[in-house]
Fold this protein.
Amino acid sequence: MKPGYEGPAIDAVGLVKEFERGRRTTWQRVRRQADQRERFRAVDGIDLRVERGEIFGVLGPNGAGKTTTMKMLATLLEPTAGTARILGYDVVHEARDVRRRMGAVLSDGRSLYWKLTARENLEYFAALYHVPPREQAARIAAALQAVKLDDRSDDYVERYSTGMRQRLVLARALLPDPELMLLDEPTVGLDPQSSRDLRDRVRDLQAQGRTVLLTTHYMEEADQLCDRIAIVDHGHVVALDTPTGLKRTIAATEVVHLEIASSPADAALLSRLEQTAGSVARHERENGDLQVTVHVRSARDFVPVAFDAAREENAAIKHVEVVPVTLEDVFISLTGRALRE
Amino acid sequence: MTASPATFSATTPSRWDDLRADLRAFGAAGVKEWRLLRRYPSLFIGFLFWPIALPLAYVFQAQGYSGGQPAALDAFAQRTGTAEVAGFLFLGWAAYMWISMILWGPGTSLRTEQVRGSLEALFMTPVSRMVILFGPVVSQIVWAIWMFAVVGGVLVLFFRVPIGPIEAIRALGVILVAVPALYGLGALFAAVVLRFGEVSAMVQTVRGVFTVFCGMTFPIIILPVWAKAVALSLPPTYLIGDLRAVLLQGSDFVSLVPELAILATMGLVLCGFAIVAFRRTERFARRGGSLAQY
């Protein structure tokens, strides 16, 4: 923390990152032809204020701008516009001070040296993080213990499972004893047991007083872990609240998924369901059947009416599933798309 | 939300503490590379074989061309200032192999980290970029010492070249003066890696230029005037020439001061240029996101 600084752990204002799409060949340069590359905004004016000690989630589909945002905060990318301060330090002009105070997991186990042991990997990175030599052994031991790898510390990383490697990447990020941790999709590619394990480690980080900013496209993960969540889409924050607060934004308590056999009058049926239920969140054709997601206050009241409406429109409901409202539904109601799309 | 009043280790250190920490990291990078090398023991055989085999082929070639005639040897001595054909060729090749290591070293190391996926992890640490650039090359100093020791041993034991401790110390001095210029060139190639993601074509070209102009296997006196001017603008020419002077012609350091001063000046200019180029390309990479692209 910057001396005298009392503000939030992360304070980003109007963060923008533009990239170029397409290519400009050497021949085009030599001939001084006009640059026809298109500029696009991966992040388009994101504001984030993450308070100290909280687990803050950034939830969004692939390509929403989550990783680009993380890389700007991690000093790996320079913002095109806007400012970001980490613990009071500017990510562009005080990048080295930011790096001293931040641990980041932005990559998978590939970023480790597989022909070294876990301990040898951590010894190298401890030196790069400027850990004082007299503290190095203790820090490495603590990091290995924190991710439950202390009994395998002298094995080559190439003999680790994917989940163990991901935990070692987390251990590496703990070496500077950081006040802030950035975790970019930390559980991608892990089996359920390893994911659960890693989520437990993230909760431990918060218990130690650290601030955690994590991105994910797994809504359950965001729901279970985060104190607050920003939902991002197309480089914008489209909603920001606690998980409960976000779920409250849609006027429903339950979600009904209907699978309806081919009907000649989809539009009429959907219109009737809309009138009955209040909100048809999503509909699409899949294998000839109509898949409809409806937000309702009471599934018990809605389902019989839906069957009546289908019968009157000469359609047949093949399958009904009732589930509680999730962050996925919030995302669908905000963007009209599912997170996985 | 848990907001416990935890305390964390990070502080902003003094410049001196930062420098000391960077030097420790420099050593750690060398240890890491050395550990990785040890996992591939077959590499050691190559390093034992090449410093002897490659120059030896040229020694045989020279003997074949001259037919061992005194007139040919006299002509050689007149042009080179020494009658030690084997010494001349072995030193030229040893210097060439060392130069190749340094030219390839930083760029290849960055490229390897980029392809492996560890470059971003390195750039997220507070360590100086010079450590990331040159730290892994530290381990190659062991190979360089090994190579020069092997070459020296072969020359003394098999070719009876009179190299004593004084000559060896003078040669070490020449090598140290050449280090900034060669590492500066290596850093320039590393900047090319960050900018374009590929360096081998350029390294091969520059190595070819060095082979043709810097007198690895021949005295530069035989070159045409224009080519001699090119040779005198390249740092390896001075390294190779001065190594031969102290080891084969018995020259002392004082007589080489003008040439060593040129070499040292080239080193300062190249290092300054390399630092600026590397900073600019790092900025370019941070703007375009090319650290993780390969």
Summary: Chain A touches chain B through 53 residues (CB under 8 Å). Chain A has a mean pLDDT of 88. The two ends of chain A are 39 Å apart (CA to CA).
